[in-house]
TrEMBL record:
This is Alginate export family protein. InterPro entries: Alginate_export_dom (IPR025388), Porin_dom_sf (IPR023614). It comes from Thermomonas beijingensis. Residues 97-175 form the Alginate export domain. Pfam families: Alginate_exp. Residues 1-23 form the signal peptide. Keywords: Signal.
Length: 405
């Protein structure tokens, strides 16, 4: 029996046998749902036909409070789809990829306890650290990335938080039906240490991520870094910044030997409901290997067209400008959200011009508590990949309902 199977057998048996589960505090228990319908169109210059994918994802769960401080979450997820696209599981390789395969799975199943000083969570869970550059849930895709893990949090003094996670397995966004078995899930022995200190409107985070991939040894890395974010004005207006520096080396049974640098410099200026940013993100490469972030929410970085889910071996330099904020009048005041970004991509070695990309999005409320989104990504290739354009139209409905009042 694998560690993961044994872990969840113990959890399941314990939950089903526990009288406390059936005596859960109904007033603090709830049913949660997230229904998202999306159409994604992909025009890839490498294919004769465009991809047209219409998918619907329902995520629903039961959150129970069996005793003071205790929480149990059981959550399932199902995706249905129609159209001509390569989901990674349907074999339609004559079309561009839209990685939203159909299927159903247990998304989360965990037991947690916490108080004002900290807590612990055991089971299949969502993990999103800081800005999700290193570890995240890949929330943009219909099938979420979750982890079989043990997590602990400790708050010894005000403003200081220590997070530790041991990861036994990652269930990837490609889903359990992916034709590539390594894209479904990976067995891990990964340790995540994240120490955050917040004072006023500034935060410092030190981290060490010792990632061992038991299925792909060459993906095992050790990453140590420091992140600093803040703003001069406590209101968040005016000048702000994000700065980060990290070093990644080979780890565990990785047959390669390397050491790569990561840095991010992102000054910003907030005025009213609008924020402007300029950024320079560096992912080092030596022509043979490059810095990688396999557990990250990759869609949030280096453009929405997802050209750089795997860092090229010559590394990546992403220089970007972005603007975004909220607007609206009357009942729609601050309920319309917009964003525009421009990226210039080059290599770390030789400053090869990879390409350029424009991103734009508009989010808006709809009747009945729904939320709409229109989103565009346009990548123009120079020396990396090929021209590609993606368009998304999305409607989402999420909510929580108490089991009893």
């Amino acid at each position: 029996m694998s560690t993961s199977v044994g872990l969840y057998s113990v959890i399941a048996i314990g939950l089903l046998a526990s009288p406390a589960l059936y005596a859960a505090d109904a007033a603090k228990s709830s049913f949660e749902w997230d229904l998202r319908v999306r159409h994604e169109s992909v025009d890839d210059a490498g294919f004769a036909r465009n991809a047209e994918a219409t998918t619907a994802r329902l995520r629903a769960g039961l959150r129970l409070a069996p005793a003071p401080g205790w929480t149990v979450l059981l959550e399932g997820e199902g995706v249905a789809g129609a159209g001509n696209y390569n989901s990674g599981a349907n074999g339609k390789t004559q079309y561009p990829v839209v990685m939203d395969p159909t299927g159903a799975e247990l998304n989360q199943a965990w037991v947690g306890w916490k108080n004002a000083q900290g807590g612990i969570t055991v089971g299949r869970q969502r993990i999103a650290l800081d800005n999700q550059r290193w570890v995240g849930n890949v929330g943009w895709r219909q099938n979420e990335q979750t982890f079989d893990a043990i997590g602990a949090q400790w708050k010894p003094v005000a403003g200081l938080t220590l997070n530790y996670f041991w990861l036994d397995k990652v269930h990837r966004a490609a889903g359990g039906n992916a034709l590539n078995t390594l894209a479904r899930a990976r067995d891990l022995d990964t340790h995540l240490l994240n120490l955050a200190f917040k004072r006023g409107n500034q935060q410092w985070v030190g981290y060490g991520y010792l990632h061992e991939d038991k299925d792909v040894a060459s993906a095992s890395t050790a990453t140590w870094g420091l992140r600093w974010t803040g703003a001069l004005d406590k209101s968040g207006q005016g000048f702000g910044w994000a700065a980060e520096l990290a070093r990644q080396t080979d780890y565990a049974q990785n047959p390669a030997h390397f050491s790569h640098n990561y840095w991010l410099l992102e000054p910003s200026w907030a005025q009213g409901k609008t924020t402007l940013r300029a950024g320079w993100e560096h992912l080092g490469g030596d022509g043979v290997t490059a810095l990688q972030t396999p557990l990250a929410t990759l869609h949030a970085f280096n453009g929405w067209d997802d050209q750089f889910g795997v860092t090229p071996v010559k590394g990546l330099e992403d220089r970007y400008l972005s603007a975004g904020g909220k607007f609206g009048r009357g009942k729609y005041d601050s309920k319309l959200a917009w964003a525009v970004a421009w990226h210039d991509y080059r290599s770390d070695m030789g400053s090869v011009r990879y390409g350029r990309e424009w991103n734009a999005s508009l989010g808006f409320p709809l009747p009945g508590g729904l939320n709409g989104l229109v989103k565009l990504a346009d990548y123009r290739a120079n020396a990396f990949s090929r021209d590609n354009t993606k368009l998304w139209l999305q409607v989402e409905w999420r909510g929580t309902r108490a089991l009893a009042q």
